[in-house]
Amino acid sequence: MSQEPESKPPGEPAAKRDELPSGREGHTPDFSPAEVQRRLRHPVSFFRRTREHLIEGGVFLCGVASILAISLIFIFLFREGLQALRMVDTPLDFVYSMGVQLEYDAGIDDVVAVGEAPQLAWQPVSEEPKLSMIPLMWGSLGVALLASLLSTLAGIGVGIFLSELASPRLRGVVKPMLELLVGIPTVVIGFVMLAIVAQPLRQVAEAIGLSGVYGSTYNMFVGAVGVSIVIIPVIGSLVDDALRAVPDDLRAASLGVGATRWQTTWRVVLPTGVSGVFGAVILGFGRALGETMIVLMCAGNAAQITGNPFDSVRTMTAAIASEMGAAQVGGVHAQTLFLVGAILITITFLLNLTMELVVNRFRRKIRL
Amino acid sequence: MSVLPKQAVKAPSPPPARPAPPGHYLEVKNLSVHYGETQALFEVSFGTEKNTVLALIGPSGCGKSTLIKAVNRILELTPGARIDGDVLIEDESIFGQKVDLISLRQRVGMVFQRPNPFPKSIYDNVAYGLRIHGVKDRSTVDDVVEWALKHSALWDEVKDRLRTSALELSGGQQQRLCIARALAVQPDVLLMDEPCSALDPIATGKIEELIMSLKQDYTILVVTHNMQQAARVSDHTALMWLGKLIEHNRTEEVFTNPKEKITEDYITGRSG
After folding, report:
1. How far is B36 from chain A (nearest CA, A)?
2. Domain B20-267 is classified in which CATH homologous superfamily?
């Protein structure tokens, strides 16, 4: 009496597994236990032992190699980035630079220099390089925050739908499609945004009376929409995983006292899985911060600080991608770009670390 | 305990509002359940009376859990489960057109095999059922929580730490908390699916005492593997075997004078 209908997947009778292969009915097993024992109890052959060692060694090497590769990236980026610090007078040069301040003089109807003032400008190839990273960070943060804003709600919705509402069959179709979406080369998404979406988006904005603020066809908003296409499936898929890890017992208990499906989701499943959901959002944000191709192609690529989401921006990633090829090897511009990379990798590392910690807490909380 | 709103308290022995209905209080009629191609229940029929405990015994996989999950229709959530036949409570089919699933489940509470408190505070666990049904005012919720915890014999152990997480309680306390959570929505019928299988003997003893004292207010169906438990707590016992109901009678009769050979073999430990 071992079969428990409740725990068995329906439609898979246990008897099937125990059935003998056809043609074996009526066959009586006939072997000598001593003979089988003799064949099983022999020393492990040299070949088998060596193969075991080789496989173990190979797997170990793969693990070490990936850790080594990541460490080398860190070391390399920081070594190069720190050289940039040696090439400037003060690290503050990466925050602001002094520039001539111009003022309009009505008497001569022209602008005149009235002195020097700190400027937050990224102009690395001008005669006097201006290396403030603030505009790049502003652009990165702006796009990533806007994209997270757009995709957090949508992603959580997708996750709830997959985990709580979709039938197993529908989920079996949607989830692989979602994961496929994550795999689309970002350059393709960037191209689609650039060639097909950006113009109509501008027309829509102008039609609803936003022409005054709609600065550039290629702007932070368009970039953020493109990035959202990549991270909505990431967040959705992770939220689905987090919610499905919530034990069914809790759903049954909630439905058992008369809660509706939505009440169960909102008051039991989501609060129980909240750290998993939080982890998904952080990972999505990290992904948005690191996204390069899409923002390079459709966020306008102009390094400026702007509060208007419809203005062009250049992100840290886009600056590295578009300028590194033209920067002189070993020059202050190239080394500064390395420093930008080092900062970027540190931020994403910290984000991932936070996510791991949060998700671990979540696992403990629901006693997995 | 302060004054409770009327609907929140069960009178110890409610006076019959109308003459007893002709049939049983809870009646299962020709209930069959399929999981995909596999049939788990074969035309099971029986009835049970108000304020009694019915124990369902039988070997694993005989359909006991399936049967009680059908009574609050939580079975319908299992993919591939198909239910034929009928279950009547006070002569009204629970599968009827007019039946609201939400109020049915409020009326038929359930306690599960493994203690499954929500990862919330002790208070919030018990208050959950009230809140989802829209009871929000603080004093009522406070009163009902206290009442439910007293009724589930947990109050004295937790009254000073109602705001701490339910997950910090021991297994037996968690199970009594789950009973309190089920009681808080004022059910008539209580379904218990092997409520002691994850508990130690002392905790089991407490739950058994509780079942016997809850009988005066509720009609209880309890699934158990443990025949001594069935003998101790129940008024009637039903033996299930391979999805069929073999014998259903007063507990004493079943244990001292079984009618069927299978029952005799099972309760004496010769099979199962």
Report:
1. 5
2. P-loop containing nucleotide triphosphate hydrolases (3.40.50.300)
